[in-house]
């Protein structure tokens, strides 16, 4: 009897140990144009985590327009981590349902943004419309492809970059608003996300210029589309610092905080920073950035905080209902 009881206890302990080391799956809810980036990041992280801990973890990805993705998380999508393209989308998680703490930015280096990027142009080979700067997007006869700023952080950055360009030229707010009206009069379609806008331009053949993140332009102009497209860098642009965060309520409910934290910490390691650079994003690590310096053109940039005060102010002024963007497209047709 004693032997039998001992055997039962041994088997039970074995099952418990097996469950403790059962595969853990994380869900990374991210924005539109990072599919390829996180596919490579995930593979590297899984291997690194297995080597360091002996435990197996897998990562699933969800991609879409940044703001729409954030809304999905507030409505119940069980994201262990979010990797968005603007702080407003993570602030939304703090404000609606307290899914993350208000001080989420302070929990990782560089305000929780493992890389930077900016807004540049992709044009057809030879640049037949001679597009060089933001002012050219407002010219009659130029078709401009931009993601919808109401649903996409990509589109929001493009809108704010154009506004900031005009303001730096000494324009009043009214003149900047008229400038945006002229640009969006030239926009034939407003895709909900950045990758949709890229598809519209590169595959559907719509437009003379695509305004999007530098990494998306790099992907197209250095990849199979190199023979058909080329990058154009404007005189000044907006610095994008895409942030990341654990979704606290989800990881605590699922018991995945340790793995989720390791995943985000991994983004700041030299190995992950190298992958980031290979995907045409500007790494935070100084050594990795220096190694790839020739791949990133020097460009004058400004931040949302410098030009607009804060993301909250920019959101309220430009993208809330009745804001300057709604005014810019109200009489578009």
From TrEMBL:
What organism does the record attribute this protein to? Caballeronia glebae
Localization annotation? Periplasm
Annotated signal sequence range = 1-22
Q: Per its record, what are the GO molecular function terms?
A: molecular carrier activity
Q: Name the domain of life.
A: Bacteria
Keyword Transport listed:
yes
Phylogenetic lineage: Bacteria, Pseudomonadati, Pseudomonadota, Betaproteobacteria, Burkholderiales
Task: Enumerate the UniProt keywords alphabetically.
Answer: Periplasm, Signal, Transport
Protein name, UniProt field: Sulfate-binding protein
InterPro entries, alphabetically?
Thiosulph/SO4-bd (IPR005669)
Q: Which GO terms describe its biological process?
A: sulfate transmembrane transport
Q: Which GO terms describe its cellular component?
A: periplasmic space
Say which family it is in: Belongs to the prokaryotic sulfate-binding protein family.
Q: Does the keyword Transport apply?
A: yes
């Amino acid at each position: 009897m004693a032997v039998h009881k001992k055997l039962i206890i041994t088997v039970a302990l074995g099952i418990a140990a097996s469950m403790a080391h059962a595969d853990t799956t994380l869900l990374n809810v991210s924005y539109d144009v990072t599919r390829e980036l996180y596919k490579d990041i995930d593979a590297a992280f899984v291997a690194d985590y297995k080597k360091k801990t002996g435990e197996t973890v897998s990562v699933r990805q969800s991609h879409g327009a940044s703001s729409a993705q954030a809304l999905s998380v507030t409505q119940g999508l069980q994201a262990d981590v979010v990797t968005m393209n603007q702080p407003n989308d993570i602030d939304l998680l703090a404000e609606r349902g307290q899914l993350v703490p208000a001080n989420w930015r302070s929990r990782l280096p560089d305000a929780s943004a493992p890389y930077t990027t900016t807004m540049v142009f992709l044009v057809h080979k030879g640049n037949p419309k001679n597009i060089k700067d933001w002012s050219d997007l407002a010219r009659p006869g130029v078709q401009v492809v931009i993601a919808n700023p109401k649903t996409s952080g990509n589109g929001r950055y493009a809108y704010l970059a154009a506004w900031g360009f005009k303001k730096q030229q000494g324009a009043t707010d009214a003149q900047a608003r008229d400038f945006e009206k002229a640009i969006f009069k030239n926009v034939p379609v407003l895709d909900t996300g950045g990758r949709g806008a890229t598809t519209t331009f590169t595959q559907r053949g719509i437009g003379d210029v695509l305004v999007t993140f530098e990494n998306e332009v790099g992907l197209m102009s250095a990849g199979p589309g190199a023979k058909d497209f080329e990058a154009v860098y404007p005189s000044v642009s907006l610095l994008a610092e895409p942030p990341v965060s654990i979704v606290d309520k989800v990881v605590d409910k699922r018991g995945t905080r340790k793995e989720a934290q390791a995943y985000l910490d991994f983004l700041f390691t030299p190995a992950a920073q190298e992958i980031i650079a290979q995907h045409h994003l500007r790494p935070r690590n100084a050594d990795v950035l220096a190694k790839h310096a020739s791949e990133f053109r020097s460009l004058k940039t400004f931040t949302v905080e410098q030009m607009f005060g804060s993301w909250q102010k920019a959101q309220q002024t430009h993208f809330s209902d009745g804001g300057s963007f709604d005014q810019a497209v109200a009489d578009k047709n």
